[in-house]
Amino acid sequence: MAIKGARQGARVVKKVVDKVKHSPFLKTYIPAAQAAPAPPLGPQLGQRQIQIAAFCKEFNEKTSNIKPGIPLPTRIKVNPDRSFDIQINNPPMTYFLLQAAGTKKGAMKPGEEVAGKVSLKHVYEIALIKSKDPTFENVSLQNVCKSIITAAHSCGIEVVPRLEEDSYRQFLEERKDIVKQQEQQLEEIRQAKMLRL
């Protein structure tokens, strides 16, 4: 008797799981000109009944003029007739900051170490680009600059009034050695954890 009740309970749970409704809005980062039906994008689109191949084709066409691989914040709205609207924004602040600083990674310990440096001119140029995003639509350029400086500090990037090319090149060379040491330490920690298992 108990087994029969358990089976019926499982059926009820299964029916409830099938009725999960997903939001008609999807916010995600997609690499420019590299949208593919593979995970994680494909399943997210499939859950919302979007034709994956059509979406990937349209997205890749819209971003064909952008350097492939740049992460683009994308907002997707699904209409009741299973059509969709795509809103593609500029790359995130951290992408621009890391590019301007000439580094691939931010600091492992922001506030304690400096991963790179950008000048105020870099901050201003990034602010001009980011001010066109919908999130900064009614925000003054000065406040956009302040938010970029805050993002730079959270990545471990120092904002300086002016950068000198020779001294900064030397700084980047020293930084490469520090990053190699940090990666070796992380690898040793990973190996130690694997040995414990």
From TrEMBL:
Give the protein name, as stated in the record.
Large ribosomal subunit protein uL11m
Q: Which domain of life is it from?
A: Eukaryota
PANTHER family with a match to the protein in the record: 60S RIBOSOMAL PROTEIN L12, LARGE RIBOSOMAL SUBUNIT PROTEIN UL11M
**SUPFAM superfamilies named among the record's database cross-references:** Ribosomal L11/L12e N-terminal domain, Ribosomal protein L11, C-terminal domain
Into which family does the record put it? Belongs to the universal ribosomal protein uL11 family.
Any single Gene Ontology cellular-component annotation:
mitochondrial large ribosomal subunit
Membrane-crossing ranges are: none
The question of whether Secreted is a record keyword is answered with no
Q: How does it assemble?
A: Component of the mitochondrial ribosome large subunit (39S) which comprises a 16S rRNA and about 50 distinct proteins.
Give GO terms for biological process.
translation
Q: Which positions fall inside the Large ribosomal subunit protein uL11 C-terminal domain?
A: 90-159
Q: Which residues form the Large ribosomal subunit protein uL11 N-terminal domain?
A: 27-84
Q: Which UniProt keywords apply?
A: Ribonucleoprotein, Ribosomal protein
Q: Name one GO molecular function term.
A: large ribosomal subunit rRNA binding
What NCBIfam families would the database entry show? L11_bact
Species of provenance: Pomacea canaliculata
Q: Which Pfam families match?
A: Ribosomal_L11, Ribosomal_L11_N
